Amino acid sequence: MKKKIISFGSILFIVLLVAGIILIVGYNSMVDREEEIESKRNQVFNRLTQRDNTIGQLLGAVEGLQEHAENIYQMVTDARKAFSDAKAAGDTEGMIEADAMQVEAVRQLVIIIESNPNVNAAPAFMTLMDEISANENAIAVARKDYNDQVAEYNKAVRKFPTVLYASLFGFEKNKPYWKLDGENDIPQIDFGTND
Amino acid sequence: MTFRKSISAPMIKNAKYIFFISVIVLTLISCKGSKLPRPTDEFYVNDFADALSFATKENIVYFGNEVYEDTKKIKEIGGTQIVFATFLLDDKLTGADIDITALYRKWGIGKNDMGILTVLFFEKDNDGLLTLSETFMEVGYRMEQYLTAGKMGRLLDETVNSPEFAYDYDLAVAKLLFELLVIVTNDIYPDFYEPFDYDLDEFVIERDNNIDIDYSYGDVPMGFFYYLISPYSSVFEKILLGLFFVAFLGIGGGGIFFKRSRGGGGSSGGMRVGRRK
User: Fold this and answer.
1) Which of A72, A75, A130, B36 is 20 to 30 A from B248 (CA-CA)?
2) How many structural domains compose chain B?
3) What ipTM was assigned to the predicted interfaces of this complex?
4) Dihedral angle over CA of A58, A62, A64, A69, nearest 10
5) Do B274 and A192 touch (CB under 8 A)?
């Protein structure tokens, strides 16, 4: 009888030990995943800040935009304000909205500059176009990296055995993706590949 | 009554075979899929379109290796790698198949994210001659501060996209390499190097003297085994290699040797400029 109790105790100890190890390893890996998402989000923020700075330089390099394309000028300044407000508040949702506004504003800005001879661009214009084009690509990569990381996290949190303790430790179940409204309708800005 | 069953010798033998076959099958499964090639053994030049002259390829490899070996010990900004790749677009391969950022990351260009990757896409015209259709230049995270998008655009405009080199893209690539070396010596490591100087006419003489050299150089992806032990393969693939290695030794194999990998392990954030002809 005593022998049976000892062997039951040993088995229980081993089971608890294994469960404990799984719990610790699982918890740590979820923390790592959350930190990685944070790092990827910061990367998107940095890229958006770069874009905002380049738009500022582009506006400075273009003469006569306000007179000839008042609505586009307003769109660009609104998008920049939305971005700066969201950035100040650290608001990810607001940042995603500002991102979408900026994409459209930049696209319209480029179209108006290229098609309107009354709007003059400084010699630095082509350089700035390259900067914007390259940055748009980098933003797309940063968004994808972020979304890939979120997808990995969301999958992990729903899988066994993480699903058993994820809510216990307060891990969010469905982290939102960085998805722009009507993303498929936004044409890719690829003027950098043109002559 | 007992549920214990002794494990017999034939069972162990069968298990060995099953394990060995499983490892091989898994390894083969992991090989398929991506259209992104492995880098060549020369690493710095990956002329899959067979578009560049021997002299250009030799210069790319020579200077690429020298810059990397010279600078890899420099803290934070050391380990610059300048890599070129050419692809021939046809019915089987389109530009969309080559994700340049993914290629950059797969090859792990540049230590400390100090890499530069130039990708040239070629097409064949009606006469079967190669024509350059698109060029892209992408830099690693830390290289962005030295080689901005504006600078990359200017470099491409003055080399591969310049009318001056409309009929000699090979020379344009050589000039692009030399201009990148000027940036490396003057802007990135001014305290380490004398300013790089070059004479394009001299290069043309060198190239024309070697024009008949026509052997495989920098246009064959590295062998699968080298790929597995290099930094370009995934952890999963490395684990498979480990299992394969154990199984290989288990059946009496051996004789494995290693080759030094070339990539510095860098990554890119997709900062890229392109030009279409």
Assistant:
1) B36
2) 1
3) 0.80
4) -50
5) yes
